[in-house]
């Protein structure tokens, strides 16, 4: 897991109040949110180009889907 993914997971954990029992599910939700986010980017853009906005979007997406 990259540092960016770990940060998004940490944010999602804090936003959702998920405990250790939900950790694996939350990680899957973060991955799904990241994939959805990447599909919405303009051609040639990466999530790294979006900086902290991408982290926030992933974390909120995981929380909303959870």
Distance between the termini: 20 Å
CA-based gyration radius: 11 Å
Helix/strand class: mainly alpha
User: What's the overall geometry?
Assistant: elongated
Give the helix tally: 3
Main beta sheet: strand number and arrangement? none
Q: Level of helix content?
A: 55-70%
Based on DSSP secondary structure assignment, what is the total number of beta strands? 0
Regions with little confidence, pLDDT below 50 for 5+ residues? none
Tell me the strand percentage band: under 5%
Salient structural properties:
66 residues; mainly alpha; 3 helices
Describe this structure in words.
By secondary structure, the chain is an all-alpha fold. Helix content is 70%, strand content 0%. The longest helix is centred in the middle third of the chain and has 18 residues, at 23-40.
Write the layout of secondary structure elements.
Blueprint: H1 3-16, H2 23-40, H3 52-65
Quick description:
The protein has helices at residues 3-16, 23-40, 52-65.
